[in-house]
Amino acid sequence: MTSVEPVGARQAPVTVVIPTYNRAADLQRALRNLGAQSAGRLQVVIVDNSSTDNTKEVIEGLMPSWEGRLRYIRKKPEGPAAARNTGMAAATTPYVLFHDSDVELTPDWVERALAHLEADASLGAVGGYIVYAFEPGRVNAYGGDLGRMGLAWDIGEGSLLDSKQGSAPRIWINCSAMLARVPAVQQAGGFDETFFYGYEDSDVGWRLNITGHRVAVFPDLVARHHVEPSPGGAHAEIVFHYCKNRLRSVLRNAGGFNFWVMTLGYAAYTLLDLIARGPRGAKLRALRWNLARWGETMALRRTLQVQRKVADADIFALGERRWLPPTPLGGQRRRPVESAASTSPRGAAPVSDDRV
């Protein structure tokens, strides 16, 4: 049974939101870890995207030991973005920790992250090092960067963990482990629920910065990510979601002259990418998807841009000023993909992912 804090321990002002799909074993490990956090008694909301394993039974079995602080919400499979919004809507605390089921935090992670947020009112969200569980001395991410063609990538991926690295502002933070102020995420528009998979964390991080809520990483926040040692092959449905989400994010978020720079940059990159490699059908479908929703995206754009407090020039200065990621994955992932069944609204989706 998952152990939790003794009765009488202080309540932490944090709700943990965990989107999941068919990861009962990972959830048990994550809950053991969260129950031992030094910050105190955490609220946890599990948002299940219609798992077919024993996730529901496992969570129900753990509920008594959590004394009313563990909630289970089952919903139709719409991806991690929609699941995070569902979990955040259920939160009654001022802070929410977006947490993937395959992540383990250091014992004082939440306490330290809270201290960073409470020490600086300008911060909307904080994170830290994500390291590989199969090699804890190697970095999965230390925040994220964004290129001028809309491509997003993890900073420091594959590098050695450096405990002497300083804190740093970022354009976005990997939502595997990100503590945020609920009002800040709400003002930024929450997660875009049309994304289904990919780019939801870079998109919301960009919008947090736009609306004046800084995001930053701190070296004393370390989370272990239980993923495969090697990326799997590219999957057409994942490529579709990556391409459609990247363009949607650019069209909605890019401000002023940068809108034209990034839109034209996306178009040029996509044309060359279509010529160079497949899956071409998935990439063309992503373009058609965005054209069909042009009016909706422009309405979201107008709502966001009137709230803009920080220019894109200042936001992109937080990154490495690269146009392309140092190690493009091209649709590859460190989570397994199966296509025999479908959780995607359009079919042929990854059904073994821990969140969708």
UniProtKB/TrEMBL annotation:
Keyword Electron transport: no
Alphabetical UniProt keywords: Glycosyltransferase, Transferase
Positions of the Glycosyltransferase 2-like domain: 15-135
Positions of region (Disordered): 326-356
KW Transferase (keyword) present: yes
One family name in Pfam for this protein: Glycos_transf_2
UniProt-recorded Gene Ontology molecular function terms: glycosyltransferase activity
Gene3D superfamilies registered for this protein in UniProt: Spore Coat Polysaccharide Biosynthesis Protein SpsA, Chain A
InterPro entries registered for this protein in UniProt: Glyco_trans_2-like (IPR001173), Nucleotide-diphossugar_trans (IPR029044)
PANTHER family: GALACTOFURANOSYLTRANSFERASE GLFT2, RHAMNOSYLTRANSFERASE WBBL
Family, similarity comment: Belongs to the glycosyltransferase 2 family.
Designated name of the protein: Glycosyltransferase family 2 protein
Organism name: Piscinibacter terrae
